[in-house]
Design goal:
With 190 residues, the protein is of the alpha+beta class. The chain has four helices and nine strands. The strands form two sheets. It has a five-stranded antiparallel beta sheet with strand order 2-6-5-4-7, sandwiched between helices.
């Protein structure tokens, strides 16, 4: 049976993507072995499902639409560079959500509950809304420089995004990087 690498996300809009690209340029000067995300591919992931059987994607789209329809449209503000596990040892570099994070968390919880009915496990870690900017491939002195730049850009203004739909994506990986195709769109209600 064919499988599709699938995840659930919200779009942050072109203005936020431009601001995120500006932040990447500020961080890139630190050097280091970082795979920066193409701004065109930037989104805010709500849930990664991994490889799912192709026929199950229709059920996933229906479950996400049901959960999204019960959530209000809202606005988020993005601010500041950060890293997982922390700036001193960055592995994933991100831009944070400072306004509307509680509404994103509620939307995430609703989607988790809807997908649990289809057999998908709930995430063990607490949901931390962020926009991934890059992934560090190797450490070293450049990683320390990157950590300093992350701290220096802790208040970077990432702009505002209107959240009015949830997207179900298929992800295809190749040597040039990922390609994302929208499998389903679910409008937020109320």
């Amino acid at each position: 049976m064919n499988t599709i690498r699938t995840f659930i996300a919200v779009d942050v809009g072109d203005a936020v993507r431009r601001r995120a690209a500006d932040l990447v340029e500020r961080l890139r000067v630190g050097g280091g072995d970082v795979k920066w995300v193409d701004p065109h591919n930037m989104h805010l992931t709500l849930k990664f499902l991994g490889d799912v059987p192709d026929p199950q994607t229709a059920d996933i789209c229906r479950a996400v639409a049901e959960a999204a329809g019960k959530s209000p449209m809202f606005e988020i503000g993005l601010r500041g560079a950060g890293a997982f596990p922390h700036a001193g040892r960055p592995r994933t570099v991100w831009m944070g959500v400072d306004r509307g994070a509680d509404l994103l968390a509620s939307l995430h919880t609703a989607i988790e509950k809807a997908l649990a009915k289809l057999g998908f496990r709930k995430e063990a870690r607490r949901f931390h809304p962020h926009l991934t900017l890059g992934r560090v491939r190797r450490g070293g002195s450049a990683q320390r420089d990157l950590g300093r730049l992350i701290n220096d850009n802790g208040q970077f203004d990432g702009g505002v995004a209107n959240i009015n739909e949830v997207l179900v994506f298929a992800s295809f990986l190749d040597k040039e990087g990922p390609t994302y195709n929208v499998l389903g769109r679910a409008r937020l209600g109320r």
